[in-house]
Amino acid sequence: MGCSLSTSVDVDQIRRIPKNVGELAVFVPGLRIPKPVNFSQSLGDNLSKSLVERLSGLRTQVVVMASQEAQTAVKPRRKAATQHGGSMLSDLQQSLEDYLPVLLGLVKEGSKLQNSVKFVWVNQEDDIEETAMSNAWYEVLSVLHLMAMVSFSQANLSLLPKTSSDGYQQTDESKRTSVDVFLKGAGYLGFALNHVLPQLPSELRKELPVDLSEGVLQALCQQALGQSGDIQLGLAIDCTKATLAVKRRLACEMVKYWHQAYDNIVKLPLTSGWGEKHQLYVKWKYAEAQAAAYYYHGIILDEGNTEKSHLMAVSALRTAEQFLKESNKECEAFHTTRPVSKNPPIWGTMKYLSEKIAKDTSIKGRINQDLYSHERIVETAPVLPDFSVALKPDDYQLPPNDPLWN
């Protein structure tokens, strides 16, 4: 139990909001961290010594590694990425995957041990410092949430541009890898929403911290899909074979992901530093997605041969420019909200669109005003095309119970 005692002080320090977290390509809410549990006291009379020791050992490992990663996560991100190269995150993910099959024995059908252990986790987006529940499904939900947040952190490290002699570099391979990681994280969240959350009694669900509320879990799941769509659009922009129609569809799909994330998170009482920052991040990315979608919609409308299509194109491009300005404001608000962060060198979708939107809006507007009277320019934005979304969370299933339970 020495490891548990040695981490108690560290866990208590994790609630402190840092002043600066450096560069962020992906926002990851402050990690929820488990506090030590004495399984011998709770389960010693009901389980074999070997099973109790295995539960205790695996969870202690998660406590120690999660505490260490949380403290690394609040340091400037580029320095952390250089020092650890993501290996600490991979080790934490593996520890969670090792712990889960043993934990699941407490919730197997017919088990009388489901409510025997009080599990305590430190919250980050909730004003309440920590949440304790004597229900093993709460522990399963917390583990899946942490697995998803570790996936987000891995994607963040993958997307932060690497320093080279030519400046900051990002490879297509790292971008595609990050999409796979996002969809994997979305799979954990989707399973938690559909299969774990319903296992908790209604009175306990009301006591869950905001971090684990249905709205936050939904928003995080949609964020993963939105970030994946953003990366796919960036890859399409760099691909000479990708048509305007393909880019518009990707941008319109991205709007749907971020719109759902926005709807789920905007009304939640996220008042702490991490929570407020989370809401601002979703607002920023939602505005960015709309700027991209209206830009490509406007460019395609302008290819039409009618006066109406040309006028609607100008309106769409002007709308794109407005959303671009709004996204810049939300971006600044996000990065200046404590913990203070900053953008990595501009990359991907916005590296291209931040220049093209203003330039093309000015050019198309001037041309069409020369052709048609100013009064006939459409002031209301045209409706975006309604495409069905293509990205889905990965299918995830809980692992079988550890053989020790047999």
Number of helices: 13
Going across the biggest sheet, name each strand in turn: 2-3-4
Helix vs. strand class? mainly alpha
Q: How confident is the prediction overall: mean pLDDT?
A: 86
What is the β-strand count?
Answer: 7
Which spans of ≥5 residues are poorly predicted at pLDDT below 50?
A: 1-9, 77-85
List the helices and strands in order: HEEHHHHEEHEEHHHHHHEH
Oligomer: single chain
- Computed CA radius of gyration, to the nearest angstrom: 24 Å
Largest sheet: 3 strands, antiparallel
Percent range for helical residues?
Answer: 55-70%
The 3D shape can be described as elongated
User: What amount of the residues lies in strands?
Assistant: 5-15%
Architecture overview:
This protein is mainly alpha-helical. 62% of the residues lie in helices and 6% in strands. It has 13 helices and seven strands. The longest helix is centred in the last third of the chain and has 30 residues, at 307-336. It is elongated and about 85 Å long. Residues 25-406 form the BRO1 domain.
